[in-house]
Amino acid sequence: MKEVLRFDNVSMHYHSQQGETVALEKVTFSIREGEFVAIIGPSGCGKTTLLSLAAGLLSPTHGKVITQGCSFGYMLQKDELFPWRTIEKNIFLPLEIKGKNTPEARARAAALAEKYGLGQFLKNYPSSLSGGMRQRAALIRTLSLDPDILLLDEPFSALDYQTRLTVCDDVYKIIREEKKTALLITHDISEAISVADRIFVLSKRPAKILSEHLLSFPESEPLKRRENQEFSLWFEMLWKELNV
Fold this sequence. Notes:
- The structure is a single chain.
- The chain is of the alpha/beta class.
- Helices cover 36% and strands 26% of the residues.
- The chain has a domain at 1-71 and 151-158 and 185-244: P-loop containing nucleotide triphosphate hydrolases (Rossmann fold, 3-Layer(aba) Sandwich), CATH 3.40.50.300.
- Helix 2 (87-97) packs parallel to helix 4 (131-143), helix 4 (131-143) runs parallel beside helix 5 (161-177) and helix 6 crosses helix 8.
């Protein structure tokens, strides 16, 4: 698999009247096409900064972020659907913003909604949908521009625990079926283990890569992974790494 995203010795410093804050320090890692990579770390360590750098929203203070010309879709912690727009019009919003609101693009986005269980709700407003369905709509909206890489910023954290498990499973299956590369940041160890091909562990701020782990579960679905006896072993090891 070819490399589609690389952080090469990346450091990120923020400056304010109170002084300088070093968020990331000499971070190096790469992601290959089709991978689902998770990055875990303590709160406030700079995980969201990593996604902003990947998306080109920030420029590193030192080092390089190499994207190989890939396009990105960003999925946020909350669905952020506009309540005055129907689900259909929310899904079409990125097409309007990017000037790609063609009949072909709208048809593709609507087909994705139909494929993943939202077809009958396209004329509904967000308030009539459950939290899980809203988050699914947010993912379809992100996919409407057909990005190469999905950046997932703790996309299940606003959901209750039971819904979170179900939606995580749904989102994972959609990403896999659409053959997308994904980078997830989360502080939830279980969530990372349930979806990732590889996990990177970050230190406290300034964040550095503490370790990299390759996961090889026979099961692919998140809920089935959680039932595997190796799941608790992975959890215990990663918990210790995060709490040294």
